[in-house]
Amino acid sequence: MVRAIAAAVRKTQACRAVLMPLRIFSRPEVISVTRSLSSIALLLAFATAIQPAAAEETCPDPESALGVSRIVEIDGKAGPLFGEFTKYEKEPRFLGPKEVVLTFDDGPMPRYTKPILDALDKFCTKATFFNVGQMAMAYPDMVKEVMARGHTVGTHTWSHPMNLRRQSMARVKDQIERGFAAVALAAGDKPIAPFFRFPGLSDSGPMLAYLQERGIAAFTVDVVSNDSYIGSPQRLIKRTLDQVEKRNGGIVLFHDIKASTAKALPTLLSELKKRGFKIVHLRSKATFEPLPELIAELKEKHAKKFANEDAKPKLVPFYEAIAPSTLAAAGDPEVTELAPVPRERTHAGGTHATASEPVATDGGVAAPSPRRTRKRRAHRKSTVTGEVSGIPSLSKIVSGKY
What we know:
The protein is of the alpha/beta class.
């Protein structure tokens, strides 16, 4: 970086030497032009020098980086369902031995999303982020940065209700559609993917049928990192690697609102590389069009916020120009296209584990304690009266209390 800045200064001095003869003219307008040209030369020289440095810092060692071995491009128009943790009929596993998909739920939260992005850049790899609508509206710049760095963004409802299966279909549809509208609005001119994950992995036949109607692909998981319940980065690393080894890869669930995840990720990525695992990146064949009426409603409700966003000075995003290079640590990755056919989501057996409960060490769901059972009963009772208890508010999540 120091060498790049020094080079920029030398280029600027050279430009000034060329412009120096203009100073023989004493007219103010000539002097003004000289100063303007000098400023432009400084900016161009600095941008030219700094961009290769940024690329170098993003992937400093391609040989030891994890990279992206394969891209899976998914056509979501048939509403496919991927991942093991569901009772409903799902698509065949598209991952080979030792292939891993990295996913992050519940964000964005700059305090933790930013270091997670930095770790992914360091290892030249990509992930899929399932954003909560309210969080996206709170931090639209972070949504834009996630996408600018080459990652895929899907959604995770509007407000992350853990009891979505118990709500009316009208409420379910609003949670899904409002979440997509919010994330799409926060993303600006970059289209988001029609990818969705249920809060707590709590799906149902009617909800899956609605996603199929809307052309949205649903994702459960194969490996639960349990970072919602593990505060120690060392324990999180051990558990995640144990589960990934046990399942020989898979779709891995993390949360980019957890400090332990942000701290553990660099070591996790390094260990995955050492153990011969490869990263598969998900992307969508088509973009998603949210409901126009919800876009208009959210724009009106948050007009002041987005007006302030538009008024902010926009810095040149040097990382955006180098995003493709992080995928090519070892050449262009192979692209696999998936186009599942529509199907009725019947109960086909399987593991209906939820991310709202701790996962046992064998990969199943640990039996809930009586105390947790009482909490769930109290929660069911409160939802009947219109109250919601036990679900963290946006303010608690943003303040780091959850």
